[in-house]
Amino acid sequence: MSSPTGNFRSVHDAHDPAAARALHGSAWARFSRGVGLGFPIFLGYLPVGMAFGIIAATLGFTPFAAALCSATALAGAGQLIALQFLGNGSAAFGVLLATTVVNLRYVLFASTMSTYLRGVSLPTQAGLSFSLTDETFAVNIADHRAGLATPASMAGVGAIAWAGWVIGTLVGAIGTHWIGDPSRFGVQFAMPAMFTALFVALAEEWRHVACGLLAAALVAAVGVLGWAGVHIDPSWALLLSAIGAATIAAAVRREG
Amino acid sequence: VKASVAQSTIWVVIAGMAVVNFAVRFIPIAVVSRVELPRPIARWLSYVPIAVMGALVASSVFTPDGRLANPLTSASLYAVAITALVYRLSRSFLGATIAGMGSFVLLTHFVPFFAH
């Protein structure tokens, strides 16, 4: 590769100083830029990580075990569902199956992300895939579409997100008693709020908006099925709705 | 009050989750970045992110507890609208997230209509 950004295509001309810094600055400058981009994720992960830490502590996790779990799994919804299964007395196998199903969407995210990571070395890909979450994915994809993302900036986004998740977990697990009910801070809406902002960020083209709304409609339709007595697990409903909407959107648009 | 889980189970779960969650992310990245994707699949993948975000937001509005709820009486619907508007105007993830959480708290605590 002749340029430091490898095969990352730039849609900006060479005279845009911000774009030039983003693409051709030092590795540290690009990493720091990623940390800045990921800072909202850090703040969003703190309260949700705290919720995980609190619940984990009540189930018998030591603060170290809870923080280690967050540091090595980095799987928000997947970790919370695991606690739910543990709390219901499920065996380890059932817990792992639940977290796998909930996080199957990462297969889709990773496949999408991989198209931007051609020509990147395997160890770098390993590091970047470790920090792949809903939020880092959406931030990095938006940055890629703007033509500004590099492996270093993606590492910065991942690092700051990871820090928020682990610190939040640790604070929650240690401070279980004096924090009390985290819902009074609106914690349960932190993730939906972030997903909403990311939806708007990704919705630049009407075909994408239509696809996203179709996925939402399918989720509602599956909910109606549940009301009619056909119960489908929420994480499966989410996964199938997203796959269905993307498939329909791709099938309708044959050209290009 | 939930029962305490055996420490051995906790450690097996921590180790298993680390492996599983890395595998579902790393294997597709390692494989798909090394093969040329057919155009229809590449096109399909371009729609996946927005579809997943739409489905994630919708499940918090329509099926907050895994079962269908009337979205019009759910604070989530209105908090989602406020979040989207704030992001649209400010282009700030942080501002939009805080506005969403704040409006959710205000709606559920101070508007009797939305209290469960």
Could you characterize the architecture of this molecule?
The complex is a heterodimer of chains A (256) and B (116). Chain A is mainly alpha-helical and 256 residues long. Helices cover 73% and strands 0% of the residues of chain A. Chain A is built from 13 helices and no strands. Chain A is globular and about 55 Å long. Chain B contains 4 helices and no strands.
Which features does this protein show?
heterodimer, A: 256 residues, mainly alpha, 73% helix, B: 116 residues, 0% strand
Number of strands of chain A: 0
The number of E-state strands of chain B comes to 0
N-end to C-end Cα span of chain A = 28 Å
Task: Report the mean per-residue pLDDT of chain B as an integer.
Answer: 86
Q: What structural class is derived from the secondary structure elements of chain B? A: mainly alpha
Main interface: chain pair and counts: A-B, 111 and 78 residues
Q: Fraction of residues of chain A in helices?
A: over 70%
Structural class of chain A: mainly alpha
Low-confidence stretches of chain B: none
What about the largest sheet of chain B? none
Largest sheet of chain A: none
- N-to-C order of helices and strands of chain A: HHHHHHHHHHHHH
pLDDT below 50 for ≥5 consecutive residues: which ranges of chain A?
1-11
* Radius of gyration from the alpha-carbon trace of chain A, in angstroms: 20 Å
The proportion of residues in beta strands of chain B is under 5%
Shape of chain B: extended
Distance between the termini of chain B: 22 Å
The amount of helix of chain B comes to: over 70%
Q: Would you list the SSEs of chain B in sequence order as H and E?
A: HHHH
Question: Mean pLDDT of chain A, as a whole number?
Answer: 84
Oligomer: heterodimer
